[in-house]
Task: inverse folding
């Protein structure tokens, strides 16, 4: 028996159920629509579990689930490369993690400009230039690789686009699909400010216990989904 | 004796050596305020140090090194001159599968002395050499002061020099800037478009057209940088001959005696490095007087640039194959000014990892 983590809410859940359904693995909510419970038809030995998309990476890392569907942004933020194996990109849930600055910063177009502006900002204001984000690791790795200095990351778990106007940050790094919200909050994406292109991915846990029976179920599932075997 | 006890004993032996050399024993808290270290090293240090949260004291870090707390203690109430020694754990995150320890002992020696920096450099290096004798380590020295002097001596704008100096410790960024200032790398397309816009209208106008003003960074700051960008775009690239000398310097690796002769040779074309090369020569003399063979001692001009420290002069390491540096150190004059709120004292020091020393002794025993 293998456990398959499915996002428990919203568009991501529906797209996920549709993707599996189109390949003969039909999952249906059971009980009331408030109950987090789902059943599968068309395949044996696979048990779907509804989980918060943000917690699926952790459950994959600890091996509590064998498979899971969640955004690559969440996995790359929370896990290191070898804790999970990518089985398939599912073609939905696309969004970009980008670095954005106020549109009125007419002197800042690239990461290189941001670095120079950060140096001047620190001199003028006595503190490092603040970048609001919830993707601390991805953003820091990106800026570190480019040798950007004199910035600080401030945590923002929601409404990140508003932090600049509210005076708690000078710039932001956040997920966007259309850029609407950024524009509405008078922000602009740096021309080389794409940190990560995210989409929904089916992952396999390398920490989970894969029994002979589990491998067999995985083999059948992989055949139906037309994906390669992870383990 | 188990491994941990052997390492501790090795640490005690090295510490005794430092105390015998005249150092005063100092200690430092394991929990350090994160803010000081973040302001000094930037966010990058979060990837290397353990950060923890205290509801009252705010963000704290498990001591990633002793240098900062020792300098702070000295700047607050130190004797002048002073020599300090310490022994204790430091904590560093390591990549998965690296096999490197994330908690290990460091034993260190720091000299705060205004009198004779070259002699102090040599004193520290020779002391480390003596305490590490018989381990067959490979010593390497460098001098970030020469690089900084070379940048300061470039025939270009102060702004470009400041940009290069700011990134001396980030070799990749430094290289990218130098390539751009020297006209060797094409400007980013985004930057070209930006310059076209800036030339098409006045900065104030462009800001006006950009819509609602948000953020703490003021219009004056934006205008000032826009003007700087335009001025910089009109400035000629750093001369090819000068740039070539700097590239040559960055890659210089040779025995110290040979490196000195090479540096003397290029001083004629880059006179600004003259005083730094004189200091290098004086240091080699001081090293030679302590029995160091400077004709074979390895010199690497870029050595120490990727270290976490704010080294700005002499740097050194003692290396063995297949492990992190067994010992490393250097001069960090600028750090004392940063942490001393205006006060300043030349300082040089270094650390040894007793765990690696014990490991080498175990392997050779």
Result:
């Amino acid at each position: 028996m293998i456990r398959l983590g499915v996002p428990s809410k919203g568009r991501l859940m529906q797209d996920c159920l549709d993707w599996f359904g189109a390949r003969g693995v039909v999952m249906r909510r059971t009980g009331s629509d408030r109950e987090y419970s789902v059943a599968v038809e068309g395949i044996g030995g696979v048990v779907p579990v509804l989980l918060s998309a943000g917690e699926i990476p952790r459950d994959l890392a600890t091996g509590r689930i064998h498979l899971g569907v969640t955004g690559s942004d969440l996995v790359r933020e929370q896990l290191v490369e070898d804790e999970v194996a990518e089985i398939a990109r599912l073609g939905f849930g696309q969004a970009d993690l980008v670095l954005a600055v106020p549109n009125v910063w007419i002197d800042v177009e690239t990461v290189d400009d941001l670095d120079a502006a950060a140096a001047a900002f620190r001199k003028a204001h006595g503190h490092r230039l603040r970048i609001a984000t919830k993707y601390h690791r991805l953003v820091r790795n990106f800026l570190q690789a480019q040798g950007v200095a004199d910035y600080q990351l401030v945590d923002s778990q929601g409404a990140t686009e508003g932090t600049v106007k509210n005076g708690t940050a000078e710039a932001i790094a956040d997920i966007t699909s259309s850029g609407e919200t950024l524009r509405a909050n008078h922000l602009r994406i740096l021309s080389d400010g794409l940190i990560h292109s995210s989409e929904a991915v089916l992952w396999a846990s390398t920490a989970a216990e894969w029994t002979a029976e589990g491998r067999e179920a995985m083999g059948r599932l992989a055949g139906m989904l037309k994906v390669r075997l992870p383990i | 004796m188990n491994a941990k006890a052997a390492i501790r004993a090795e640490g005690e032996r090295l510490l005794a050596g430092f105390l015998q050399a005249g150092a005063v024993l100092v200690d430092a808290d394991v929990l350090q305020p994160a803010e000081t270290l973040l302001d000094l090293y930037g966010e990058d240090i979060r990837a290397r140090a353990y950060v923890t949260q205290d509801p009252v004291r705010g963000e704290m870090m498990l001591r990633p090194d002793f240098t900062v707390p020792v300098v702070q203690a000295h700047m607050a109430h130190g004797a002048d001159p002073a020599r300090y020694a310490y022994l204790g754990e430091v904590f560093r995150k390591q990549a998965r599968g690296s096999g490197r320890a994330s908690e290990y002992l460091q034993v260190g020696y720091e000299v705060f002395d205004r009198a004779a920096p070259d002699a102090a450099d040599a004193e520290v290096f020779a002391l480390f050499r003596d305490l590490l004798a018989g381990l067959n380590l490979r010593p390497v020295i460098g001098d970030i002061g020469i690089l900084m002097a070379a940048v300061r001596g470039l025939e270009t704008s102060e702004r470009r020099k400041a940009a290069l100096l700011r990134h001396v410790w980030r070799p990749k960024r430094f290289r990218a800037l130098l390539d751009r200032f020297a006209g060797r790398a094409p400007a980013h397309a985004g930057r070209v478009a930006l310059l076209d816009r800036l030339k098409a209208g006045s900065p104030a106008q462009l800001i006006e057209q950009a819509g609602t003003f948000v953020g703490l960074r003021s219009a004056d700051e934006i205008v000032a940088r826009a003007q700087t960008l335009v001025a910089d775009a009109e400035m000629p690239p750093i001369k090819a001959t000068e740039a070539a000398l700097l590239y040559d310097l960055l890659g210089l690796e040779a025995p110290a005696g040979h490196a000195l002769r090479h540096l003397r040779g290029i001083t004629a074309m880059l006179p600004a490095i003259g005083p730094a090369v004189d200091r290098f020569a004086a240091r080699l003399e001081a090293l030679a007087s302590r029995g160091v063979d400077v004709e074979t001692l390895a010199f690497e001009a870029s050595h120490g640039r990727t270290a976490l420290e704010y080294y700005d002069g002499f740097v050194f390491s003692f290396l063995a194959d297949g492990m992190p540096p067994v010992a490393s150190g250097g001069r960090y004059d600028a750090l004392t000014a940063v942490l001393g709120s205006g006060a300043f004292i030349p300082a040089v020091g270094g650390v040894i990892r007793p765990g690696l020393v014990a490991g080498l002794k175990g392997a050779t025993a």
User: Anything to note?
Assistant: The two ends of chain B are 14 Å apart (CA to CA). Chain B touches chain A through 44 residues (CB under 8 Å). The longest helix of chain B spans residues 3-20.
